[in-house]
């Protein structure tokens, strides 16, 4: 009996602890982006995304974040939407999902956090750092952040689009994630 | 002969050159598939349009402060009215054309940034169906301008070669008034 309870205690303390899974609520959440075309910023968003956000603001190092974005849900303008899914851009048929998987999350103090991990777009994985703010709210929480993706790193925009003079390399990604109450 | 002054002439011919360029590029790029070249042409077209818009405002101010030379005395009352009306319409079209382009850019979600440096305020919120409708209006105005410019040119030539008055000469450098 003693041995068994010791084993349980050991298991609980040594298993990578699930901090607190907070259900992502698509309504109210957004993953938007700003790209720059001949010095002119233009906005768009991804309409469909999902993810598992296992985050405890008190113990951020135990967190695990896994976000998946359906790249075919790219929405900016009629012309751009038709273009973005093509193989030379996001290649929605060959690589339907973009994905971020965190490897470490740490607190920067004052409600600011930073997740590092792998961002995979169009089959190319890169290490990225994503700063975000976390706020507890009535019945849930929200996560807000912004980071820069260099489209050239992921071969987004190949061939005639690979130069950055018309469509800039840097694309800003802004996210606002609405999370439900933590399920323990 | 009383000619237009140098500023009025310069503005008139400058706007003519820019309008011709914007017109040719506008019609050419309309049917191009999306490509870096098309985006570049679109930017140039927008910058030219904004330039025309400001130059036309400048022309109107200049015209108010410096009234143009009087019409030839031999013109019939209906000809005077037609000349007056067609000039008003041309000014209106020269402002409406860039304005609808600016509005359609806003509605399509692409801000107009003059020469990639000076952002113009978005006058409309992003609204793709409205953007499409404004694009139709913009294109239609192109044909209407073409028609009025054709009338403008034909009328100037008629004044010069048929009425043999100084209407063409007073605006066109290097053109002498016809001898009577």
Give an overview in words.
The complex is a heterodimer of chains A (184) and B (180). By secondary structure, chain A is mostly beta strands. Chain A has one domain (18-180): Beta Barrel (Lipocalin), CATH 2.40.128.110. Chain A is 11% helix and 53% strand. An eleven-stranded antiparallel beta sheet of chain A has the order 1-4-5-7-8-9-10-11-2-3-6, covered by helices on one side. In chain A, a hairpin with a 2-residue loop joins strand 2 (24-37) and strand 3. The longest helix of chain A has 13 residues, at 2-14. Chain A starts with a helix and ends with a strand. Chain B has a single domain, classed as Transmembrane di-heme cytochromes, Chain C (Fumarate Reductase Cytochrome B subunit). Chain B has four helices and two strands, in the order αααββα. Chain B has helices at residues 6-30, 36-65, 77-108, 128-161; strands spanning 113-114, 118-119. Chain B has a two-stranded antiparallel sheet with strand order 1-2. In chain B, a hairpin with a 3-residue loop joins strand 1 (113-114) and strand 2. The two termini of chain B are 13 Å apart. The chains are: A mainly beta (184), B mainly alpha (180).
Question: How are the SSEs ordered, and which strands pair?
Answer:
The complex is a heterodimer of chains A (184) and B (180).
Chain A: H1 2-14, E1 21-22, E2 24-37, E3 40-46, E4 49-54, E5 64-70, E6 74-75, H2 78-84, E7 97-109, E8 112-121, E9 124-137, E10 140-150, E11 170-180
Antiparallel strand pairs in A: 1-4, 2-3, 2-11, 3-6, 4-5, 5-7, 7-8, 8-9, 9-10, 10-11
Chain B: H1 6-30, H2 36-65, H3 77-108, E1 113-114, E2 118-119, H4 128-161
Antiparallel strand pairs in B: 1-2
């Amino acid at each position: 009996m003693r041995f068994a309870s010791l084993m349980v205690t050991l298991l609980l303390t040594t298993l990578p602890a699930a901090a607190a899974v907070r259900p992502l609520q698509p309504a109210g959440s957004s993953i938007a982006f700003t790209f720059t075309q001949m010095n002119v910023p233009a906005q768009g968003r991804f309409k469909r995304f999902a993810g598992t956000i296992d985050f405890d603001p008190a113990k951020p190092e135990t967190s695990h974040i896994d976000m998946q974005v359906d790249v075919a849900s790219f929405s900016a303008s009629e012309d751009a939407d038709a273009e973005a899914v093509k193989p030379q851009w996001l290649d929605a048929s060959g690589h339907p999902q973009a994905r971020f998987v965190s490897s470490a999350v740490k607190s920067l103090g004052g409600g600011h956090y930073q997740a590092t991990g792998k961002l995979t777009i169009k089959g190319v994985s890169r290490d990225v750092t994503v700063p975000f703010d976390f706020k507890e709210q009535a019945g849930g929480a929200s996560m807000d952040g912004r980071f820069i993706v260099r489209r050239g790193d992921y071969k987004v925009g190949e061939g005639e689009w690979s130069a950055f003079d018309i469509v800039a390399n840097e694309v800003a990604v802004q996210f606002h994630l609405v999370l439900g109450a933590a399920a323990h | 002969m009383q000619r237009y002054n140098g500023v009025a002439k310069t503005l008139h011919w400058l706007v003519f050159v820019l309008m011709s360029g914007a017109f040719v590029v506008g019609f050419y790029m309309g049917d191009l598939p999306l490509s870096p070249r098309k985006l570049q042409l679109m930017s140039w077209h927008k910058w030219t349009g904004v330039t025309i818009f400001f130059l036309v405002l400048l022309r109107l101010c200049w015209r108010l402060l410096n009234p143009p030379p009087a019409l030839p005395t031999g013109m019939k009352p209906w000809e005077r009215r037609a000349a007056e009306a067609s000039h008003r319409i041309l000014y209106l079209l020269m402002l409406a054309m860039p304005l609808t382009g600016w509005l359609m850019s806003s509605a399509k979600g692409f801000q107009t940034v003059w020469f990639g440096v000076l952002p113009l305020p978005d006058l409309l919120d992003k609204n793709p169906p409205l953007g499409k409708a404004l694009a139709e209006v913009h294109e239609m105005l192109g044909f209407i301008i073409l028609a009025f410019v054709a009338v403008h040119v034909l009328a100037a030539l008629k004044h010069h070669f048929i009425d043999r008055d100084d209407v063409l000469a007073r605006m066109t450098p290097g053109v002498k008034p016809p001898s009577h």
